[in-house]
Each structure stands twice: as structure tokens, then as C-alpha cells.
Amino acid sequence: MNIIVLIKQVPNTTEVKLDPKTGNLIREGLESIINPDDLHALETAISLKERLGGKITAVSMGPPQAVDALSEALGMGADRGILLSDSAFAGADTWATSFTLGRAVETIGTYDLVVCGRQAIDGDTAQIGPQVADYLKLPQVTYVCRIEKVTKKTMTVHRRLEDGYERIRCPLPALLTVIGEMNTPRYPDVGRLIGACREKAPIKIWNAADIGVETKDVGLQGSLTHVIRTFAPKFERQGEILEGHTEQVVRDLIDRLKKSEGATACKAFESTCKL
Ligand SMILES: Cc1cc2nc3c(=O)[nH]c(=O)nc-3n(C[C@H](O)[C@H](O)[C@H](O)COP(=O)(O)OP(=O)(O)OC[C@H]3O[C@@H](n4cnc5c(N)ncnc54)[C@H](O)[C@@H]3O)c2cc1C
User: Fold this and answer.
1) DSSP code of residue 181
2) In this structure, which residue's CA is closest to atom 3 in ligand 1?
3) What pTM was computed for the model?
4) 113 and 51 within one domain
5) Could you tell me if 211 and 275 lie in one domain?
6) How far is the CA of 165 from the centre of ligand 1 (A)?
């Protein structure tokens, strides 16, 4: 089974800080990691390969340093890595990112399955998997937490819903987005990791021409959305502590609540206290 895994290198934090002047993400001083959901995507592919044979290609779009994510993927068990890196790809919104990744998958050509993480911890949109599937006209199953059965032409999987699970049989090739419940990702093997960091490692860097796209269709130019302003909403809470255990303290609290937006809650509180 030939599997393509899409992996994103992200800053190792869920508390993304923005430069108040430029609105850009502050990446300085932040360690980069493989997006956590993508480790589960890689583990899914590696376990399938162990059972069924085949080849795993890890693909990432990002700056040159994203090669580290691909080396780690090779260390875990991927057979080769492709880094989509070109200044033309910079500033891509999810539409342009999905188009670029979709073109890369088309350029790779032969595959039975594409696996993505459900969501990236920085961009956080969870749009890439579904959009790549749509571009490639592939059936897609999102939120996958278990693979029950694989035949030559189909795959039976379980997907997580808010209040249960859904069991789906889909034709292959297909695209899955997986969640953490799926598996426990293995650590990279040290020998494989050293090999993956050598010059001869099977990692290729592709630019716009390699995937046959024009610069007007990718990156900022190919994006349908443009960020006008990015800001963190101001959140101010003015706390006040009323001290003491007397009835007067409770009355003071009720007076304050009556003057505030919590008037309904206040009525309920008043009747509960029988004041
Ligand atoms: C309007 C707009 C403008 C943007 N401008 C910029 C910008 O100027 N510079 C910038 O760096 N970012 C920019 N971004 C963010 C960038 O578009 C997203 O990071 C990117 O499209 C992926 O979306 P996401 O992070 O929400 O991934 P999700 O959809 O949450 O990711 C789901 C899965 O898709 C796969 N995936 C996602 N991204 C990649 C990738 N790059 N390579 C391989 N697999 C991947 C992974 O398997 C991941 O788990 C912009 C986003 C928007 C909406």
C-alpha cells in the first residue's frame, strides 16, 4: 500500500503570540516540532506498511528548516520525504496551501491513501485535509480514530463524533484525517534518524516548477483570502472581593449584581438565600 502523509512543522506551543505591529506570528525562540496530529498520521501509515507492505512518502510545505520534520518522519519509518519550499509558496492561505499540496500529491502520482492530521496547532483551521481531498476528487473520512479493515479496494474506518463513533467503508484511494485517539506514535529510531540527517538521505526539495504550478496560483498571490489585521482581543476583568460572613456582605453582593448584567442570576440567588 503506497501512502502519502502530509506533515506540517509548527512552533512547539499552543499559545501563539502575535507581533502587535505586523500581526505576524512571533516564531523567534520557539522550538519547531512535527504537528502533534501528524505524528499520529505517520504512525497510521507506518503500521499499515508493516502489515501490508508498500512505501510511505512524507510531504511538507514550509521553509527550508522544515526538512527537520521530514528527517524525523524518516527516522520514524517513512521511506522518503518531499519538502515543498519556494519563496513563491510564502504567505499561502489554506486554499493556496491545499492547492500546492494537492499538486505535489498529483506529481507523486501512484498512491492508495493520503493521511493528514486533523488540525495544525498553529493555523488551527482543520481545512487542509478536506480541501486536498476535494482538489484530488478523493473520498475523505475525517476524525478517524481506528482502521478496522483494509482490502485492495476499500477501507473500513471508525470516525469520532461528538457523542459516539461512525463506522464507514470507503473506496480507495482515499484521504483520511486522523486524531490522537488513533494510536501512540513511536519514537524515531536513532540509526534511521542519523541516516535521515545525512546528505544522501532520500529527501527532495521541490519548487513551483517541480509541481508544474505558476507563481500566480500559489502563496500570497494564489490566496483567496488576505489578512487585513491580526490582533488578540482585549480581555479585562475587574475583580472585587467582598470580605466577611455577615448578611450585610450578601446584601452588598446582591446590590452589585442588580446593577450589573447578572440581574437574572441575582434574582435566583436572592430567592435561594431567602433574603
Ligand atoms: C487568510 C490567511 C492568510 C495566511 N497567511 C499566511 C502567511 O502569510 N504565512 C504563513 O506562514 N501562513 C499563513 N497562513 C496560514 C496558512 O495558510 C496555514 O498555516 C496553512 O494553510 C495550513 O492551515 P492550518 O495551519 O490551519 O492547517 P490545518 O488545516 O489545521 O492542518 C490539517 C492537516 O493538514 C496538513 N497540513 C497543513 N499544513 C501543511 C503543510 N504546510 N504541509 C504539509 N501538510 C500540511 C497536516 O496533516 C495537518 O495536520 C494564512 C492563513 C490564512 C487563513
Assistant:
1) G
2) 93
3) 0.85
4) yes
5) no
6) 27
Look up the domain containing 248 and give its range. Answer: 237-275
Residue 245 lies in a domain: yes
Name residue 95's amino acid.
W
Q: Which residue has the cell 471508525?
A: 158
State the total domains in the chain.
Answer: 2
Q: Are residues 170 and 252 in the same domain?
A: no
When comparing pLDDT for 145 and 29, which is higher?
145
Compute, in angstroms, the gap from residue 193 CA to the centroid of ligand 1: 26
Strands annotated E in 50-150: 56-61, 80-84, 113-117, 140-150
**Domain co-membership, 272 together with 171:** no
Tens digits of residue pLDDT in 226-264? 888 877 777 777 788 899 989 999 999 888 888 876 666
In a domain, 228, yes or no: no
Distance (angstroms) between ligand 1 centre and the Cα of 208 equals 17
Tell me which residue has its CA closest to atom 14 in ligand 1.
93
CA distance 130 to 177: 8
| The dihedral sign for the CA sequence 123, 129, 130, 132 | positive
Atom number in ligand 1 closest to CA 119: 30
The reply to whether 232 falls in a domain is no
Range 221-230 burial, b when 16+ CB lie within 10 A, else e:
ebbeeeeeee
Angle subtended at Cα 162 by Cα 158 and Cα 168, rounded to the nearest 5 degrees: 20
